[in-house]
Amino acid sequence: MATAEGSGSDEQGQGVETSVTYYRLEEVAKRNSSEDLWLVIHGRVYDITRFLNEHPGGEEVLQEQAGADASESFEDVGHSTDAREMLKQYYIGDVHPSDLKPESGSKDPSTNDPCKSCWAYWIFPIVGAILLGFLYRYYTSESKSS
Ligand code: HEM
């Protein structure tokens, strides 16, 4: 079962205690039969055993992803908002943080941002401001001399 439990939020003493169950990927990988079928989608673990024969896209595609990370195939199909809402019913926990790998398309700047040192974010405005300063001085001195 779960290897770790932790608080899912920073709320303390507010009466709403949320706890997340974490699962190791090796644990998820064992749940790959039609009697017990788990999937990972975007770092979340879903027990979709009872959903198998209800899936509009068929049982087979789910069985192919059994016990594995199905994020890519789930997105490739272009599932509707309804389908995304349905996921909640089958959510059982999160992938253990030490098993998480950054997804392509994630917002982690160290993996996807081509501007790793981020110098471009400030160098262009500064150069632009200097140029504007020169232009301003050039035009004001020209209008004074004429
Ligand atoms: C628990 C996870 C999933 C849920 C709740 C889910 C739900 C749904 C729903 C509601 C539909 C009907 C169309 C829509 O509303 O988008 C659908 C269609 C479909 N799903 Fe899933 N799905 C899941 C996982 C997957 C995975 C992992 C795959 C791919 C390997 C997949 C492949 C398909 C396909 C091929 C269709 C048919 C698309 C079509 O006919 O246009 N689904 N799914």
TrEMBL record:
GO terms for cellular component: mitochondrial outer membrane. It comes from the Eukaryota. It holds the Pfam family Cyt-b5. It is found in: Membrane. Residues 20-96 form the Cytochrome b5 heme-binding domain. The chain crosses the membrane at residues 119-139. One of its GO terms (molecular function) is heme binding. Keywords: Electron transport, Heme, Iron, Membrane, Metal-binding, Transmembrane, Transmembrane helix, Transport. Its main location: membrane. PANTHER family: CYTOCHROME B5, CYTOCHROME B5 TYPE B. Belongs to the cytochrome b5 family. Cytochrome b5 is a membrane-bound hemoprotein functioning as an electron carrier for several membrane-bound oxygenases. This is Cytochrome b5 type B isoform X1. It comes from Carlito syrichta (Philippine tarsier). The gene is LOC103272542.
